[in-house]
Amino acid sequence: MHEAHLEVSVEALLAIGTRKGLFIARSSGGRPFEVDPVRFSTVGVHSVAIDTRGPAPRLLAGIEYGHFGPSVMWSDDLGETWQEAATPPVAFPERTGASLARVWQLQPSPTEPGVVWAGAEPASLWRSEDRGEIYSLVEGLWDHPTRPQWQPGGGGLCLHTVIPHATDPRRIAVAASAVGFFRSSDGGASWEPANRNIRAPFLPEGAQYPEFGQCVHKVAHHPARPDRLFLQHHFGVYRSDDFGGSWTDIGSELPSDFGFPITVHPADPDTVYVFPLHADMDRTPVGHRYNVFRSDDGGTGWKSLGAGLPEGPVHAAVLRDALVASDAGVFFGTRDGEVYGSEDDGLSWTLIARHLPDVLTVRAAVL
Questions:
Q1: For the stretch 296-329, what's the b/e string if a residue is b when 16 or more beta carbons lie within 10 angstroms of its beta carbon?
Q2: Exposed, middle or buried: residue 101 (CB in 10 Å: 0-12, 13-18, 19+)?
Q3: Residue (of 363, 353, 365, 354) closest to 34 by Cα position
Q4: How many C-alpha atoms does 288 have within 13 Å on its Cβ side?
Q5: How far is it between the farthest Cα atoms of the chain?
Q6: Is the dihedral of CA 147, 154, 176, 15 positive or negative?
Q7: What pLDDT does residue 10 have?
Q8: How far, in Å, CA of 137 to CA of 93, rounded?
Q9: Could you say which of 71, 152, 312, 347 would form a disulfide bridge with 289 (CB–CB 3.0 to 4.6 Å)?
Q10: Could you give the CA distance from residue 354 to residue 161 in angstroms, rounded to a whole number?
Q11: Is the separation of the CB atoms in 273 and 262 below 8 Å?
C-alpha cells in the first residue's frame, strides 16, 4: 500500500473512511505512516471514532452497505477484525415512522464511561451505554416542537456534529444541516436552538437571523475550554464563548468564509483550523490550491499553511469530517482520494496516501 515520510516518535493510528472502504494507517518508533489494505471494500464509511477510554482502544465505524442499509461496527484489535450487534444497532422506534439513512457521527463521551453518542440521518441523536454496540433514540430532540419546520441541506437532513460538554454530562450540543445548532442542559431531555448572531445569507433580507434554520457545516471545541465553540457555517466562521449562547463572526480575515471542516488543536484551545472553498456554487479550494488556514488567537488573525501541498491547480474539496487536529498530528483527506499530514501544526505537509476513493472522514489518535 501507500507509504509516506511523515514520522512520529509514538504509536499513532489514522483511520480514513471513504466512499468505498476504510483505510487504517499506522506509525510507531519514528517510522513513516503505512496504510493497511482496505477494510469494508466497496462499502461507504461515513463516520469513524477511535475510543481510547477503556483498557484497550476500540474503533467504531458507521458504514453503509448499499441496499443492505447502514450499520455501526466495532473493532477491539485496531481494525484487524470487526463485529456487529445481533440486532440493528441504530433503529428508529416504530412510532416515529422513520428509517435510518446514514450514521454521520460517532462521538465517545468525555465524562461517562461506556457512553457513545451517534448523529444520524434523518436528523437524530442516539446514545449507547455499551461503548457503541447498541443505541437508543434521544426522544427529546426527535420530538422537538420545531421539527416539522426542519429542512434538509444539500447533503440531506443530517445530524453531523455531537458536542458533549467536557465536564458536565448534563450538557450536550448538536448541529444539523440545514437546521442549526441546538443544546441541552438536562442530558437530552429538552433542547433549545442556539443560533444567535449566525447569519443565514441564503434567506431573504430581514429574515437572515432566524431562531433556527441555519446551515451549520461543522462545530469544534476543546475540552480544556468546554464553553468555547468554533463553527463553520454556509458562509461564515464563528466563535462562541458561552456554549452557543451567542456567536461572534471570526471569518472576515479569511480569503473565503465558506467551507465545511473546522477543528481545534489538541493542546491549545485558541488554535483553530479551517479549509476555505471559493463559494457554495464553486466548491473548490481557494486559488485552486490546497491550503489549510490556522488561527492562533481564537480567530482574530489567520495564516495560510500550504508548504508541501501541491502547487495546483486542484479542484477537490475537503468534507466536514475530513480535517482533524490530534496528538498524532494534523491530517486532512480530499475528495480525490489524497491524505496529507503535518507533524508541526500545519507548517509543512506530507502526502500519506493517494488514489484512495473519495475521503469522507479522517480520525487520528496516539495509542
A1: eebbeebebbbebbeeeebebbbbbbbbbbbebb
A2: middle
A3: 353
A4: 5
A5: 58
A6: positive
A7: 56
A8: 8
A9: 312
A10: 27
A11: yes
- Identity of the amino acid at 63: I
| Strand bridging mode 216-222 / 225-233 | antiparallel
Q: What distance in Å separates the CA atoms of residue 68 and residue 48, rounded to the nearest whole number?
A: 19
Long-range contacts of 22-25 (CB under 8 A, 24+ apart): 22/48, 22/61, 22/63, 22/79, 23/353, 23/356, 24/78, 24/79, 25/339, 25/352, 25/353
Sign of CA dihedral 6, 38, 339, 131: negative
On whether the CB atoms of residues 249 and 298 are closer than 8 A, the answer is no
The CA–CA distances, whole Å, from 41 to 88, 215, 253, 359 equal 21, 32, 41, 14
User: How confident is the model at residue 8, as a pLDDT?
Assistant: 45
Q: Tell me the torsion sign for CA atoms 110, 219, 332, 308.
A: negative
34-67 confidence digits (pLDDT tens): 999 999 999 999 999 999 998 899 999 999 987 7
22 is written with which cell numbers?
476504510
- In this structure, the number of other CB atoms found within 10 A of the CB of residue 236 comes to 24
Q: Which residues, other chains included, contact 310 with Cβ-Cβ below 8 Å and sequence gap of 6+?
A: 289, 290
355: left (phi over 0), alpha (psi -120 to 50) or beta: left
Peptide bond into 122 cis (omega under 30): yes
Q: Please, are residues 141 and 191 in contact by the beta-carbon 8 Å criterion?
A: yes
**What is the distance between the alpha carbons of residues 357 and 17, in angstroms, rounded to a whole number?**
9
Cross-strand partners of 60: 49, 74
Alpha carbon of residue 270 to chain centroid? 19
Contact between 105 and 159 under an 8 Å Cβ cutoff? The reply is yes
Indicate left, alpha or beta for 78 from its phi (over 0: left) and psi (-120 to 50: alpha).
left
Per-residue pLDDT, 4: 46
Predicted pLDDT at 66: 78
Least confident of 31-35, 83-87, 346-350: 31-35
